[in-house]
Design brief:
With about 270 residues, the chain is an all-beta fold.
């Protein structure tokens, strides 16, 4: 005897409920209860997951034995969306609502091509990203709009190759500020002198450097010290009396200029000797 039975396939959260009618042969078990023994043939069965997805087709004929309508839960494996992605934190915790820009670099100039905002879990994604031409690179940039809790800016490492409609990591980073301690703004100091700041406790892989930039010429000197909160400076850089000083932050093993950020504050300092 042929019968029709309703089989409900319930997909993962966010996907449509799939209802399938199955033709079956009826037989009686040892207790005399009616059972349905069904054969589902891939040649005539092509359920759709949703209106915007390709049909999923059974690849073989399968025996299904059941006594009534039942529910089958099917796992859904979905591909993440294409684009350039990463995660932003503040003092080690996820932070949402942070504006980011995707910069297109060629030689020594750049232009903003896309913007996005971090989600509550700190993750970001630039979508509809054009593929890169040879000699060009993408960089994810954070620029502080005036909040002293955060670094003045951060540049991710260069992404030198990207094909449209693929996924690529744009970099994870923490935007917590490095707070300057001494010398104070406008101070005149004599070397030797110890510069001081507060390391970021949630980022122990930071590499810090004190940058001294001559206010007259713009020439810069860097004094790298690793993950610590002070620099003992035995002599001035020379060639200048008045400087700006700040602290640069880079991930361990990288150098400032390819990636990293700087303290929110920069201070004026002058050398008396």
């Amino acid at each position: 005897m042929k019968a029709r039975s309703l089989v409900k396939f319930v997909l993962a959260a966010g996907f449509a409920l799939l209802l399938v009618w199955v033709m079956a042969d009826q037989k009686t078990d040892a207790k005399g209860d009616a059972q349905l023994v069904s054969r589902v043939d891939s040649s005539s069965y092509a359920p759709h997951l949703s209106s915007d997805r390709s049909p999923a087709t059974l690849r073989s004929t399968t025996d299904i034995t059941f006594t009534s309508a039942f529910t089958v839960y099917l796992p859904i494996v979905s591909s993440p969306p294409p684009g350039i992605f990463g995660r932003v934190t503040y003092q080690g915790s996820a932070i949402g609502g942070i504006s980011l820009t995707l910069q297109l670099w060629e030689a020594f100039s750049s232009v903003a091509v896309l913007t996005t905002t971090t989600q509550p879990d700190g993750r970001y994604l630039f979508t509809d990203v054009p593929g890169l031409e040879i000699g060009k690179s993408y960089v994810v940039r954070y620029m502080n709009s005036g909040d002293p809790r955060y670094l003045a800016y951060w540049y991710s490492d260069f992404l030198n190759s990207y094909t449209a409609d693929t996924r690529a990591a744009g970099g994870d980073f923490d935007i917590a500020n490095v707070v300057l301690i001494s010398p104070r703004n406008g101070a005149t100091i004599a070397v030797p002198y110890t510069f001081q700041w507060t390391p970021r406790p949630a980022s122990p892989s930071d590499n810090y450097a004190v940058m001294l930039a001559c206010r007259a010429t713009g020439n810069r000197s860097f004094f790298s010290v690793g993950y610590t909160g002070s620099l003992y400076l035995s002599h001035s850089p020379g060639g200048c009396r008045d400087y700006w000083w700040l602290v640069t932050v880079t991930p361990e093993g990288l150098i400032f200029g390819s990636t990293g950020g700087v303290s929110y504050e920069h201070r004026a300092v002058s050398f008396s000797n």
